[in-house]
Structures are given as structure tokens and as C-alpha cells.
Specification:
0% strand; 71% helix
């Protein structure tokens, strides 16, 4: 994981170039996690854009420069959850079939895509933060505001479920 402390401190003091460096270092992770969780390229882009705007306008409130990555992920997580609630309320989500086929992020098979599609929203979020974002279970627990052992057990159950489906 990258050390964001110096740039986060500079950005918190109004250095826009430092914020641009932070964004450059993390935008792919933000996009891939949003894309995986939302299944739609347009909504993923919107979630990332909204996240970056919120982060930019409130980075002065960041208390711990070492926690920049977790802090921006909490913002993204809130944006994803809000969009997922819209899907439930509107029941009009369209899954973008090409969403998993970017140059840096692709699913190996249709079976894997289908298996991942069986996961509930929380499971998709936890798995994406772990597998795509590289977050530890403790970091995921902090971001999602749930118990660390709960994240560990849920991640284990998610992996078991996928093994069974793909067997």
C-alpha cells in the first residue's frame, strides 16, 4: 500500500496538486470497486466522481493523514450504498455486461460473473474491498462500521459460497 501521508497533509492545507496526486494513486481502485458493486459503468463513474468531489471539499477535516485511503473508501462506500438503495427503490438497475471487461479488471469466465451475481450487496462490498482494493479485514471493518471478526467470518463464508457455486 502506498504512503499517502505527505500528500494528504499538503492537500488538507489546500494544495490542489497534492490532492491530484492522491487521486491519481487511488482512482483505479475506487472505480473498480464501484464498478464491481454497482455493475454499471455509468453509475460507477458517478459514484467515483461524487466521492472525489466530497473528498476534495472536505479533506481539511481529515484527522489522520495515514488514514487517507480508508477515509476516501468510506466516502465511496456511502455513495455505493446510496446508489444501491436507489436500485432497490426504483427496481430499474441495468447490469452493464461490459463492466467487467476493462483492461485492468476482468472476470475470467461467465461462470464466475454469474457466481458473483448471486452475492448480496454487503457481500459484494466486502469481497470487492478485499479482492480488488486489497483492504485488510480490519480496514474493511472500520470502513463498514462492523466488527472485525464479523468481516472475517463473512469473507470466509463468501469464499466458501463461491467455491460451491463454481465447483
Amino acid at each position: 500500500m502506498e504512503d499517502f501521508k505527505t500528500d494528504a497533509a499538503l492537500a488538507a492545507n489546500g494544495d490542489t496538486e497534492a490532492f491530484a496526486r492522491l487521486y491519481s494513486a487511488i482512482y483505479k481502485d475506487l472505480y473498480h470497486i464501484a464498478l464491481y458493486c454497482l455493475g454499471n459503468t455509468h453509475d460507477a463513474c458517478d459514484a467515483v466522481s461524487d466521492t472525489v468531489v466530497d473528498a476534495f471539499t472536505s479533506i481539511g477535516k481529515l484527522r489522520d493523514e495515514n488514514a487517507f485511503r480508508q477515509w476516501i473508501m468510506k466516502i465511496l462506500s456511502a455513495k455505493i450504498k446510496r446508489k444501491q438503495r436507489e436500485y432497490i427503490n426504483n427496481k430499474s438497475v441495468e447490469y452493464d455486461e461490459s463492466c467487467g471487461l476493462t483492461a485492468d479488471f476482468c472476470f475470467e469466465s461467465a461462470e464466475l460473473q454469474e457466481a458473483l451475481g448471486t452475492l448480496d450487496t454487503e457481500s459484494r462490498n466486502i469481497l470487492s474491498m478485499s479482492a480488488i482494493g486489497g483492504y485488510t479485514t480490519k480496514e474493511i471493518a472500520d470502513i463498514c462500521k462492523i466488527n472485525h471478526s464479523t468481516v472475517r467470518s463473512k469473507l470466509s463464508r463468501i469464499k466458501e459460497k463461491l467455491k460451491v457455486i463454481l465447483a
